[in-house]
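Section 3.1: Structural characterization of target chains.
Under the original work plan, the team committed to producing a structural model for every single-chain target entering the pipeline before any wet-lab resources were allocated. The record below documents one such target. The sequence was received from the expression subgroup and is listed exactly as submitted; it comprises 230 residues.
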Amino acid sequence: MTHSIYMTLAATGNTGKTTIARHVLAPDSGPIATLETHSASGDETDVLDRGGLAARLFAPPTDGLVLDVGVGDTVDALEALRLISQQDSGLPSRLRLVVPMLTDSKSVAGLRWLLDQLPVVLRPCVRAIWNRVRHTEGATLKDSDVARAARSVARQGGAQLCSVPLRESALFDPAHALVRRYGSIAALASLPDSTIREAALGEMSTLLVARDAAQAAVANCREVYAALAE
């Protein structure tokens, strides 16, 4: 199934919606539009109000679109989804709702709340994803109490919990000095050997380590995207 619209949603702030929109979804699913009427608009070029969001949902882009919903606009986005799903039976087939979760009980409660607010027809569109997972958590997360609770909430609500976590990395931060220098994580990951050889001697090892980390980050993002698209 091809999903032409991805929307990031969360019941609470600071869960990494915009990180996922930028680094996981946008590279493969098109430009980002942001519903952000209750706070600063950020640096996205396409900022929507509620009417703009509804228009985008009614008219699916041919090349894909990522809708990043600010936490202060979550209720408005849910209401728009409810109204449009009543009038547009094709919305579930082109929409994927991505819910970032941190490894805590607050995120599980937020997922439960979101599923309760969504129309039943749209709940299968939800893919919850663990975000900012530390390497030390990787082996134990699946069997943790929080993960079991999240799986139960997702299953009861008709959603899915993505099996691939997005790992924590400073390189996901667009303000990282080397990401700023080279323009993107992908550009840093693709840094040619010739550029590294031309760097100052003291910087070469830094660039090599950063490129390896960026390559691992890009690979993780692509793995997560594939899992979300299923």
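The mean pLDDT is 89.
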